[in-house]
Amino acid sequence: MERQWFIYLLRGRQRRFYCGITTDLDRRIWEHNNDRSRASKCAWVARPLELVWSTTADSRSEASRIEARIKRLNRSQKARLVKGELTLEGLDN
Known about the structure:
- The protein has one domain (5-90): 3-Layer(aba) Sandwich (GIY-YIG endonuclease).
- The chain is built from four helices and three strands; from the N terminus they run ββααβαα.
- It has helices spanning 25-34, 41-45, 60-71, 75-83, and strands at residues 5-11, 17-22, 50-57.
- The chain has a three-stranded antiparallel sheet, with helices on both faces.
- A hairpin with a 5-residue loop joins strand 1 (5-11) and strand 2 (17-22).
- The mean pLDDT is 93.
């Protein structure tokens, strides 16, 4: 049985969004905000970061596909996703 994966959006300074995947959401958010050696470089410079959206996937490959779709969105589309105005089903494949 595979682990559950999380796809998440963090928002940092200057309304920047950062999208990622993990199996431990709390740990990963803590790392992005507090551990420079474990944080993404993009996320580290946008600190402080707050979780604004997340969903789950059953496998790493599914999580990676969803992450790639979200990363192709522009900032306003990501904001709509966070507000619930855009759904994963509404994204282009």
